[in-house]
Amino acid sequence: MSHELQPLIDSVGSELALHGFRNRWRPALSALDCVALWRLCTWNVNRAVALLMPAQDDFLIGPYCQRMKWRLLWRMWFVPFFYEVGLQVIVVDNALDASDRGAESIGTHVDRFSNQMVTLQSIFVVEWRRKQFASGRTWGQVITGRHQDAIAEGIRAAGCVAN
After folding, report:
1. What is the pLDDT of residues 88-130, one digit of tens each?
2. Chain centroid to CA 85: how far?
3. What is the value of pTM for the model shown?
4. Domain residues of the chain, as ranges?
């Protein structure tokens, strides 16, 4: 698959591979604006990272990511209450300076509590044209923090700087 975001896909994928994540993208995910998907499944960890490139330009990050977590969940393997998915979302957007896309407000859109099915643990918003990004994270950084750090490092390796 060749994509305009290939440098970003490759660098994030390389960083995540160091932590055991595997590429799980398939063509059916294109209908969900998903251009890359990585998974880490062990006996006690079920994590996913989705790279989304929304077709529309004017949308609110929070509602979009909350809606997408449910749509993506049904494309992944999980067991409610016992093996929920911890989801990290990377959204490629060209309006990083909009009011709900700043570093301060992105963190307000992640889940604060587990619903025992899918928890939106972090959101990274990348403005690919200006090579900038911002992110927000939730609680539970003992396991997930290093994965989120790897995502940020992969975005930096693709040439973007934190906003």
Report:
1. 999 998 765 555 555 567 888 887 877 667 889 999 999 998 9
2. 12
3. 0.89
4. 6-162
In this prediction, residue 18 carries a pLDDT of 97
CA 89, CA 112: separation in Å to the nearest integer?
A: 15
Q: Residue 20 corresponds to which amino acid?
A: G
d(CA 37, CA 63): 20
Give 153 or 144, the one with higher predicted confidence.
Answer: 153
**Of 147 and 139, more confident:** 147
Q: Nearest Cα to 136, choosing from 153, 148, 150?
A: 148
C-beta of residue 119 within 8 angstroms of C-beta of residue 86 = yes
What is the residue-wise DSSP string for the chain?
---TTHHHHHHHHHHHHTTT-EE---GGGGGGTEEEEEEEE-SS-EEEEEEE--S-SS--HHHHHHHHHHHHHTTS--BTTTB-EEEEEEEE-S-TTSTTSSHHHHGGGS-SS--SSEEEEEEEEEETTTTEEEEEE-S-HHHHHHHHHHHHHHHHHTT-EE-
Q: Give the pair of three-digit tokens for residue 14.
A: 């390389």
Nearest one of 112, 160, 102 to 135, comparing CA atoms = 102
Residue 124, sorted as left (phi over 0), alpha (psi -120 to 50) or beta, turns out to be beta
State phi, psi for 8 to the nearest 5 degrees.
-70, -45
